[in-house]
Amino acid sequence: MEDVKYQNDPAIVIKEWLDAYSDKMYSWCLYKTNSREIAEDLVQDTFMAAFQSIKKYEGKSDPKTWLFSILNNKIADHYRKMYRNPTVTESKIKQSSEASFFEAYFDSNGSWLKEQRPRSWRQEDGHLLDDKIFVKVLQSCMSKLPPDGYAAVQLKYLEGKKGEIICQELQISPTNFWQLLHRARLQLRRCLEINWFKK
Amino acid sequence: MSIMKKIMQWVMLSCKKATELIEKKLLTKLSFGEKVQLKMHESLCDACTAYEKQSKLMDQLLSKHIHSDGDSNKSDEVIENEELKKKIMEKIK
C-alpha cells in the first residue's frame, strides 16, 4: 500500500510531510544556523531534494528520519561552504589580524597576559545546557567567531566525525584545522568567561 | 648552548604552545614527546591546567549542543513558518 502511495503523486506526499514536519525542521535548522534566511533555504532545498528522489525513498524508513538526514547533510554542506568561501573582506581582516590575534592573550614569550590567565570557573558541570540563558550566551559567543572559525567548530561536532575525515573533506591539513580551532577556542573561552562564568 | 639549556628549552613550553597542544589533544593524538612536554608544563602551570579542564568542558557542551540529532531537539519550542510551506508548495507544483 505504502509503496503505491509514494509512486503515485509525490506532490501530495510532500504536502503531507510539509504539514507534519516542516515546522520542526525549520526550528531545528534555525537552532543550528542562527539565521532565518539560511534555515528557510536549507529546509526548502531539503524538500526539493526529497521531491526529486521520492521514488527512491519508497517508504523504507520513517519519513521524518529520512527528511532530517537530508537536512543534516545540507547543514554540514552549508558549513563546509562557509569555511571554503569566506568573503574577500573577511579573509582580509583575517590576514591583518593574524599576527596581532595572540597578542590579546599572550606576551611576547608566549606566557599568559596577567589578566588573561585562566582560573577555575565557579561552575564546571555538564548540565549547563539545561539553562536556557546559558544556551543563549553560548550561541551569541559562537556567532561572534570569524566565519571560518565558526564553521570549523560546527563541523568538528556536527557529525561526530574524526578530525582527519573533516580535514579531508575540507582539503586542509590537520595542522591548519587545529590551529583554527585553537584560535576559536581562545575567543569562545574568553567570551563565555566574561558573559557567564565571571558574571 | 649547553645540553642542559637545550633540554630545559624543550621541556619548558610556552603557554601559547601548551594551549595549542591541548587543542591538538582534543582533536587527534599527541606524540609521546608532546605528551611529556604538556604534562611537564601543566605540572608547573595552574593557568594551563585550568585551561585544559575548561576546554574539555566546552567540548562536552558544544558536542551536546551541536551534535546532529533532529529528534532530540534541544530548543523544544517549535516555530511555525506557514510562508515557507507555501513557498515550497509553489515550487513543487
Gist?
Chain A is mainly alpha-helical.
Provide the descriptors you would attach to this structure in a database record.
heterodimer, A: 199 residues, mainly alpha, Rna Polymerase Sigma Factor, Chain: A, Arc Repressor Mutant, subunit A, 2 domains, 10 helices, elongated, B: 93 residues, 0% strand
The low-confidence runs of chain B, each spanning 5 or more residues with pLDDT under 50, are none
Mean pLDDT of chain A: 84
CATH superfamily of the largest domain in chain A: Winged helix-like DNA-binding domain superfamily/Winged helix DNA-binding domain
The coarse overall form of chain A would be elongated
CATH topology of the largest domain in chain A: Arc Repressor Mutant, subunit A
Please state the overall shape of chain B, judged from the principal axes of the Cα atoms. elongated
Helix residue percentage of chain A: over 70%
Element string of chain A (H = helix, E = strand): HHHHHHHHHH
Could you say how many structural domains of chain A there are in total? Answer: 2
Question: What do these coordinates show?
Answer:
- The complex is a heterodimer of chains A (199) and B (93).
- Chain A has helices at residues 2-8, 10-33, 36-52, 54-57, 63-84, 88-101, 132-143, 147-158, 163-170, 174-197.
- With 199 residues, chain A is mainly α.
- Chain B has one domain (1-66).
- Helix content of chain B is 72%, strand content 0%.
- Chain B has helices spanning 3-11, 15-27, 32-44, 46-66, 82-92.
- At the A-B interface, helix 2, helix 3, helix 5, helix 8 and helix 10 of A face helix 2, helix 4 and helix 5 of B.
Write the layout of secondary structure elements.
The complex is a heterodimer of chains A (199) and B (93).
Chain A: H1 2-8, H2 10-33, H3 36-52, H4 54-57, H5 63-84, H6 88-101, H7 132-143, H8 147-158, H9 163-170, H10 174-197
Helix pairs in contact in A: 2-3, 2-5, 3-5, 5-8, 7-10, 8-10
Chain B: H1 3-11, H2 15-27, H3 32-44, H4 46-66, H5 82-92
Helix pairs in contact in B: 2-3, 2-4, 3-4
